[in-house]
Amino acid sequence: xxxLPRGPAEFGLAPxxxxxxxxxxxxxxxxxxxxxxxxxxxxxxxxxxxxxLVVGCGNSELSEQMYDTxxxxxxxxxxxxxxxxxxxxxxxxxxxxxxxxxLMDALQMDFPDAHFQVVLDKxxxxxxxxxxxxxxxxxxxxxxxxxxxxxQVGGRYLCVSLAQAHVxxxxxxxxxxxxxxxxxxxxxxxxxxxxxxxxxxVYVMTKFxxxxxxxxxxxxxxxxxxxxxxxxxxxxxxxxxxxDRQHYALLCSQLSKTPCREQLSLDLCDKESGKPRYTLHVxxxxxxxxxxxxxxxxxxxxxGRETEWLFGTEEGRRQLAASAGFRRLVTVALHRxxxxxxxxxxxAELSGKVMELAPPGLPARQQVPFLSVGGDIGVRTVWHRDxxxxxxxxxxxxxxxxxxxxxxxxxxxxNRNVVQSEARLLAPVPLPGQKKRRKDKKKPSPAEPPAAxxxxxxxxxxxxxxxxxxxxxxxxxxxxxxxxxxxxxxxxGGSLPLFIHDYFSQARVAVVEIDxxxxxxxxxxxxxxxxxxxxVHISDGLxxxxxxxxxxxxxxxxxxxxxxAVMFDVDSKDLTVGMSCxxxxxxxxxxxxxxxxxxxxxxxxxxxxxxxxARLKESVLATLRDVFPLLYVRRxxxxxNEILFxxxxxxxxxDPAELGACARALEGALRQSGRPxxxxxxxADMLQAIKIL
Length: 693
Description:
alpha/beta; Rossmann fold; 3 domains; nine-stranded mixed sheet; 19 helices; elongated; eEF1A lysine and N-terminal methyltransferase; transferase
């Protein structure tokens, strides 16, 4: 017995529905949205004394259940199928005397104007609006005009729908243009994923008198887990918000049936602001042998540690899941803009939501553990937030690392999972609830730099490698006491040039930084300062190097070039390129030739390269080989960074073992400098892992 139409257009035709209900007989047909699911929403908008019109009633039990539960009794049902109207009249005649069924088309109704307080539509709009052809849209306009005509001012048009994008957009645009308030409710799921995967929505269009002129649209959405509506600014944003919830439902359905081959990520947003509150990654480990207690766990990443390799990369999360011993692990990152009430508060907030991501085969009533490092959610104190015209919005924050160490970080919010600059603190930041230093100020004044910065510590592994590369300058004398001229392009928090200045007592360091905001950040928040041997030039690095190269070109042949070392540690502002450091223009051949020209013959050019595009990286390396005869590379374990050491002459070529010996000599000299020295500065290890390209 064939009940499906030959084409979508038949859904709007009376002959199809006549045939459908004759073949189906007396069995109720509910497309979607059973009464127990719809009831909480309907009770908000249907009052017991309301006169209710149900358009396209079919043989659904919805009207009967509204009547029988006392929600409302004065209900008029209409449909274009004579068969179903006779069936429904027979079914309710003796049981529900105040409810009626009429043969009528919703596109041309016989009721007087302003006759109803509520018009209820369960699937009828979806059945009519099967496409966006002109004839279809004209039918929908007629239906909407009739709904508007028969509703009183203040009345509600309640439309139960699957909310296909074109259907929702049409309804929202039509009624908001008429001055109505439009609110979309997501219906809470019954939990029966087998019955229907897609979520059900109820559009609530409330009729207001149309105000001449351009009245502001009022568009709102109510997610299933909350009653308070969220305002959205446009029909496009409302459609997008609904689409997000549909994708989430499909994702949950997929995860409940099969393991995911690739890691899936999603954001859970704050109910009030709509901003991301949690970022979740779902990681499956099929190799873990199943047992009763290892199906599923949630791992809360401590605040401030979401950028670490173990938590911030796919491979790291895969390793974390395998070591935790669970077949599915959901990692949860906490956002800096949000406030959290400890582990117990997070667990209470997330427990219901994360169960929607549970794996197949999870035993009933299985308790799902919440895990973390050390059992807490970490500490994050945001001290300062600002916006740079060049770098965008950024924050300065102090976070607790592994153990008892605290760190200060500069984060560009356009790439919030990357630490732009980092410094270790000598004293911990105040814990939440304690009195904060300088609470009434956005930042310290330049006259009182933060004394808690440990200037002797290099947090970044690639900075340690760049310092170790100074061994390539050679010579029998220990470098710390040798006069050096160093050019650093890219200031950030200033830790790299500051370390070279402090530990190489005869070094003269010039720093080029395009963004004046970064000089202010480094000075106010990271303990950076200028002096006789340290100067910062606010300039584009491309222009500054070109200017230096032009000056060198007019010097006499016997005059030496200016720099022993040139270091590039500059990020790209263009996130669409597969290379985030440096910007592509810094590795073009004509510019690299200028870099070579300002280097002394025995000098070294050190480049921090961060490139995820394999073809682009090979092109960059080929260009560097064309300009610099001698090229070494040091890959940073667990990171994308590669440090390239480029020299203008083959005469200084050394093997890794020889470079390791030079690095040990340099490290020994630096240890004897009288300044603090951290055992993690294994400079010899840095260079023993070097490769010649």
